Automatic annotation (TrEMBL), chain B:
This is ABC transporter permease. Residues 151-342 form the ABC transmembrane type-1 domain. Keywords: Cell membrane, Membrane, Transmembrane, Transmembrane helix, Transport. Belongs to the binding-protein-dependent transport system permease family. HisMQ subfamily. GO terms for molecular function: transmembrane transporter activity. It comes from Aliidongia dinghuensis. It comes from the Bacteria. GO terms for cellular component: ATP-binding cassette (ABC) transporter complex. The keyword Transmembrane helix applies. Pfam families: BPD_transp_1. It is a multi-pass membrane protein. The chain crosses the membrane at residues 20-41, 93-113, 120-140, 152-175, 196-217, 320-341.
Amino acid sequence: MQALYVGTLGAIVISGALIARQNLAAQGITSGFDFLFKSTGWDVNFSLLPSSANDPYWWFFVIGIANTLFLGSFGLFFATVVGTIIGLARTSSNLMAQLLGRAYVDFFRNIPLILQVFFWYAVITHLPTPRNAQEFLGATLTNRGFYVPALNVGAWPLAAAVLAAIGAIVAPLWLGRTAYLDRPVGERRTFQLLALAAGLALVLLFLLVGRAPNAPMLDIPTLQGLNLRGGLRVSSEFSALVIAIAIYGGAYIGEIVRGGFKAVGRGQLEAAQSLGLAPLKIFVLVRLPLALRAMLPILANQYVWLIKATTMGIAVGFSDFFMIVALAINHSGQTLEAIGILMAGFLTINLSLAAIFNRINKAIALKGNQLRG
Amino acid sequence: MAISAPSYPEKPPALELRFSATPVQAVVSLCCLAILVFVAWKLLNWAVFSAVFGTSGGPAACKAAAGACWSVITARWRIILFGLYPYDEQWRSALACLTVVVITVLSCMPTFWTGRRIATVWVVGATLYYGLMKGGILGLPRVGEEAWGGLALTLFIFVATCLIGFPLALCLCLLRRSKLPWISRTTGLIIDTVRSLPLISILFTFAVVLPFALPQWLQGDKLYRVMLGSALFFSAYQAEIIRGGMQGVPAGQEEAALALGLSYRQRIGHILLPQAMRNALPATINQFVISFKETSLVIIVGLFEILASGNAAYGTGEWTFAYVEVYAFIAFIYFVFVFSLSRYGAYLERRTSIGPR
């Protein structure tokens, strides 16, 4: 019975692969992974890493994954910000704020994401030309994308500064919890402040060292001739995707946040109130940590979903991982291999995201039995 | 020296408490109210008061107006709803859309909630739809799948996804719960792989890649392959939902059925599934809602569904400036379908949570 089932499935897969090999051989395409080391002959329109048409296929796949992760992290960040605001509005005791949050969720959740991507892309490409564009807080919105002020810093020092900034946030949190530091929790404030200060000092140091010589620190886009010079150009495709994912994902995350706050037991809050804690302290010390624990597993699912949603980049021509795989199939004909790489890539991304969240979940889970209610 | 207890304020009435209990609350309320009124006024002003409706003036009249240009919808609604379907036959496409609406409404009624009845409704509905769209019988001229488009195609993909996907989900779920380790593990692997991939990549694989791996006689039209891919994706998610529902059924139920000497088929069909489906009902409706929204993704593999036909409606020549109106129109259609389905789901959830479980 089992052998029959597994055997049938295996036979279908193997015969499919054999037929595919035969069909491809008939078109003069050899199978195997040799194509990874050939140069592509085409270029991508958006890349964090240096790229040219001479680069081999494997490098393009790396670029695609980097682009997907870059778009995903921006989309997730803004979606989380929007979702937190909406979720808090929906759980607040204020009737008007509840109404506003509810209207937002009902509206944006019921319209397909791809329609929203198309809409924002159409809006951005119909913005005025650089000549007629309006300036807004130093940034300029044009039909060629958004021009924002940029730091005049080289790529490597900038990356180092970003890492230092992350360290400045993480290190105090770690010091507050770790068992390596042989001090009671109350006396750790000094160490935490020191770590924060050191991190911020490192950020400044990297920025100052990596600064381009004889240039102002902040590069503000200005109009020169028909186009804008200076600053950083955020492409229309990228901004349309980030806006759409932030707005659509925000509606879903808002609901998760609301559910998390609803799951906090009334008794916990009443206990905090009876201890005489101020409302802000109740929120920071009791409601937020408990709600975070309740929503983390669902949030992890939502993040995986949003990362997968970046594949909609192909609709507007953003070169994410999926679009590069699709292009590679069109150009090289290595269909099965490229699909295999696509599957492996997404499995890796999803599994590592799930692993990270499991780790966090385990770290912050409440130990022992809690009385809930 | 006597210390007087702080005097407690009298409890304000409910509305006041929630609207302006403290100065901060009042400010927040006023700000939110201001945002709501502002957005509502802007929208109404754009969509109704200063909008252009008729086609008499053409695109020129729209460009002069400050508000929405609904003339583009009046001029192009046939393309958006029916795509490239032959003009004289579009009543059939409209009737087919109506069929889908009717079977959806019917399956929302508790009268039809037995396995046999709901299956009959969907099979009859889908056959009626297919006969109307394809023609070739009863004197209706034949219309090939390549000419199907717009809302009718979107609904067709949705119906087919549910009709193929639901039985498939049942199979996958039962196979995954099988006692035989190899069967349950292989099925689990299939389900998890499909679930971890983006839908777009599955549609792309079925539309573009699969023809290489199939012999000539099995390939079929791209539309049907895409439907299969979409159904597979739906069933992987739905199988997990049903499995969750089954885990909610107390173990004693199955043991009692075993003790009564019921066969596997009777145990599943009469004891486990009915209870599991009741547990899984809210999540199932949610999955239907999601898969309706996700039919919009077939635009990626080049099918002419409602979004693609909308792009075509404003993309040509004179109406290029009216993209907001076209997207608003399509968004409205999706909104009506999705919002009513999800409201219905929320209603069911309330109803089932009150009754005994």
